[in-house]
Design goal:
Alpha-Beta Plaits, alpha+beta, globular
Length: 75
């Protein structure tokens, strides 16, 4: 699955570092691009890892505001 997840308040490089630290150990996460300007992340992950992704966001103290499923990027 590929989606853009808008989360509350990615305001600084420390927020990016905290988010990266919590996402890095996730199995099944193939790509994660943090967009500080839009306070969102674009992620590509195995469908069955959605709960683990949400738990990682929660553990990093971020709240999901909105999700948008995206088409897969061409290989």
């Amino acid at each position: 699955m590929r989606e853009r997840i808008q989360i509350d308040q990615i305001r600084c490089e420390r927020c990016v570092a905290r988010l990266t630290e919590h996402l890095a150990p996730l199995r099944g996460l193939h790509d994660a691009r943090i967009e500080m300007g839009t306070s969102s992340i674009v992620v590509e992950y195995d469908d069955e890892q959605r709960e683990a992704l949400d738990a990682a966001l929660h553990a990093a103290n971020f709240k999901v505001v909105q999700r948008e499923e995206l088409a897969a990027e061409p290989v």
